[in-house]
Amino acid sequence: MGIRTVFAVTGLALAAAFAPASAQEVTLRAVTSFAEGTQFSKNFERFIEKVNKDGKGVIQINYIGGPRAMPPFEVGNAVRTGVVDIANVTGAFYTNLMPEADGFKLISKPMSEQRKNGTWDYLNQLHNQKLNAQYLARQFHNVPFHLYLNKKIDKMDLTGMKIRVTPVYRDIVQALGGTPINTPPGEVYTALERGVVDGYGWPISGIFDLGWDKATKFRVNPGFYGAEVNVLVNLDKWKSLNDAQRKILNDAALWLEGLDAENVAINKAEDERQVKAGIQVLDFGPQVSQDFLKKANDVAWQSVIAKSPETGKKLRELAGN
Ligand code: 173
To answer: What is the H or E stretch that residue 259 is in?
Structure first.
């Protein structure tokens, strides 16, 4: 190799080593904790499409998929360790790493407000510290949970019933006398079919995605708490991004939160579809509903504060309920 060539090659290597990060397109690996194409993955998939469109030459997302690729209760830890770069996951699935994540369902203010009143900042700090993650977005404001049953009840009492739960429903199911059985969504249908459980907790929307309507007889009103599904980015990866790359993600995150405006119409359509599918709504009137909601709120806060006294109280202050 001639001396000129050596200089030229060295020069190229140096140029590559010191090139500003902005010259390089980054690709993030993404997973979702809900089945691909279903209610609680759909908007994240639209977010990925948007990032891949707006981020050409800057940042791209490689969508690896859902629970077929990674068990849902492991997604939080995969973000923490950097096994994945970005994930769509509810706090209920990472309470092993952050017990107070069970309290997010109790924070019902819209994200536009949470971003102004300090809630987003506080939750971002929590995610930085406990999950090594940036709290990029929260979705599904205004989407309540319900109890769905296969045995009729004539009062708010689940005595003798086994109910599929995640941490979201555990305390209220217990408070109503039921036996909670922690089950990932992918196993709910079979558990219902085999009678391993007599019912389950799930939001108002999404039961048709996995065919659960065929194994569901009743839905209990009222809805309670609020679904939350977060977009988390591994913090080391986040810090390694340049301003342009972060801006693409942040802008897409705000756009994603804006999709929450669709939820009221979706809830209404899902409610009607359930009734058409023959699912009977059990409603015990305004007083019973009010007492139930108070009990649901009380037992959940008690449980969060017992597990995380300091952060639990702070979350309750921010939630204002
Ligand atoms: O029921 C669940 O699996 C659960 O906890 C949840 C949380 C947010 C959205 C949908 C389901």
So the answer is: none
CA–CA dist 66, 72 (Å, integer): 8
Query: What tokens were used for 281?
Result: 């709504």
CA 246 to CA 248: how far, in whole Å?
A: 5
* 303's tokens: 């449980």
The contacts of residue 51 (CB under 8 Å, 6+ apart) are 59, 60, 61, 248, 249, 252
Rounded to an integer, the average pLDDT of 220-233 is 98
**253: Cα separation from own chain's centroid:** 14
Kindly calculate the radius of gyration of the chain based on its CA atoms and give it in whole angstroms. 22
Around Cβ 112, how many Cβ atoms within 10 Å? Answer: 13
- Atom number of ligand 1 nearest to Cα 143: 9
Residue type, 10: T
Angle between helices 286-307 and 167-175 (to 10 degrees): 120
Stretch 176-195: mean pLDDT: 98
Report the separation in Å between the CA atom of 1 and the middle of ligand 1, taken as the mean of its atom positions: 63
The best mutation among 171, 202, 205 to test binding of ligand 1, ranked by most ligand atoms within 8 Å of the C-beta, falls on 202
CA of 229 to the centre of ligand 1 (A): 8
For residue 130, give both structure tokens: 């406990």
Closest residue by Cα to residue 55 from 86, 78, 95, 22: 22
* CB-ligand 1 contact for 312 (6 Å cutoff): no
- pLDDT tens track for 259-297: 999 999 999 999 999 999 999 999 999 999 999 999 999
Ligand 1: nearest atom to the Cα of 93:
5
Per-residue tokens: 4 = 């000129």
- Residues 85 and 104: their CA atoms lie apart, in Å, by 22
Query: What dihedral do alpha carbons 77, 73, 32, 173 form, nearest 10°?
Result: -140
